[in-house]
Amino acid sequence: MGNPLILNGYGIKITVDNGRLVIKNGNRSSEEKPESYYLQPNQKKITSILIYGQTGYISLEAFKWISLQNIQLNIFNWDGSLLSSVNQEKENNGKRKIAQYKAYIDEKRRFSIAQSLIKAKLGNSIKVLEFLPYPGIESDVISPSLRAIDKAKDIPELMGIEGDSAKLYWKEFMKAIPEKWGFVERSGREASDYTNAMLNYGYALLEAECLRVINTVGLDPCIGFLHEMRNEKRSLAYDLQEIFRGEIDVVVYKLLSKGYRVPKSDFLRMNNYSLRLREGGTDKLNKAYETRMNERIEYEGKLIPRRKVVERKGFELAEYVEGRRKDINFLY
User: Fold this and answer.
1) Which residues are recorded as binding Mn(2+) (predicted)?
2) pLDDT at position 87 over 80
3) What CATH number should be reported for the domain whose range is 3-76?
4) How is the chain split among helix, strand and coil, in percent rounded to 5?
C-alpha cells in the first residue's frame, strides 16, 4: 500500500523530465527551502498526491504521467473541501453503469440501498460513541432512530431520521471534545471552530477515497441512491462516505484529545472569521487518517486494512446493482 504526497504553500510545480515526474513543493516561509520529489514510472511508494497549496501549476505532460501511473490527484480548497479529484478509471464497465442506472430508476431497489446506507451510518455512529472514553456519553440515544429505519416508507423519511439522529450524535460526541476547542455544534463548511475545521478536511479526504473506489469498481460517481443528483455533485461518493464518516470522527477526536497533538497555531483565522488548517495541521491530520485507514480490522473472518473495507463495500454495491448479490449490507 502506497502513501500520499502532500503539497502545501505557494509556487507548487509538477512537471515531467526524462520520464520522471518532478514535483517541487510550495514555499511556506522565506527561511525554508521547498522540498523536491522525483518519481520514476511504475513506482509504488506514492499512490496519491494531495494539493493543499495556494499557487502553482501542473503541466499537461504531468497530468498524462499521473493518469498513466494510476496516481490519484486531489486538490483541496482553503476551507478543506475537495475541489477536484482526478482518477484513472480502472474498470470502464458500461454494462455495470447501465445496471446502476436501472437500480436508481427502480424505486424499490434504490430505497433498499439507501436504507442499508443509513443503517450502516447509524450503526457505526453508535460504535463511535461507545468507543469514546467519556462516562457521560449515552451511546444508546441513536438506537430508536436505528429501529425507525425499518419502518420508513421513502427516502425523504430516511433522510429525516438521519438528520434527527445526527443532532443526537453530535450532542453526545461534543462531550468528549475539550472545551478549549469551542465545539458546540456541527456546522459544515466555513467552520468557525477548530473541531469543525478538522472534520471538514477529514471528510474531504474520505470523499477522495470514496471517489477512488467508485472509479476502481467502474460505477458512475454522479448517480447516488441516497443523495439526490445535482450539478457538480458526486452523489455516489457522498453515499459511500456516509458509511465511514465515523472513522474521521475518531481521528479528529484522537488529535484533539490525546495530549493536544494539534496546537492552535496549526490553524489560520480568515477575514470572514472562519478557520482553515495550516500546513502543520493538514500534515498531522493526513498522517492520522492514513494510520487509521491502514489499520487492520476483522472483516468476514479476515484481518484487512480499513481502506480495503471501503473497496469491498464498493464492489459489493456493484455486484448488487448487477443482480449478482441478493442483498446489500453496508455494516462492517
Assistant:
1) 162, 227, 242
2) no
3) 3.100.10.20
4) 50, 15, 35
Q: What percent of the chain has pLDDT above 70?
A: 94
Instruction: Classify residue 112 as exposed, middle or buried by CB count within 10 Å of its CB (0-12, 13-18, 19+).
Output: middle
Q: Yes or no: say if 183 and 261 are a contact pair by the CB < 8 Å rule.
A: no
Rounded Cα distance between 28 and 276, Å, is: 15
For β-strands 72-76 and 46-51, DSSP reports them as parallel
CATH architecture of residue range(s) 94-321: Up-down Bundle (1.20)
Contact at 8 Å (CB) between 204 and 81? Answer: yes
Over residues 255-286, the pLDDT tens digits come to 998 666 788 899 989 888 889 888 889 889 99
The answer to whether the annotation marks 162 as part of a ligand binding site is yes
**Binding residue per annotation — 232?**
no
Annotated ligand binding at 279? The verdict is no
294 vs 82: CA distance, rounded Å: 21
* Percentage of the chain modeled with pLDDT above 90: 70
pTM of the predicted protein model: 0.85
How far is Cα 139 from Cα 128, in angstroms, rounded to an integer? Answer: 8
CA distance 155 to 244: 20
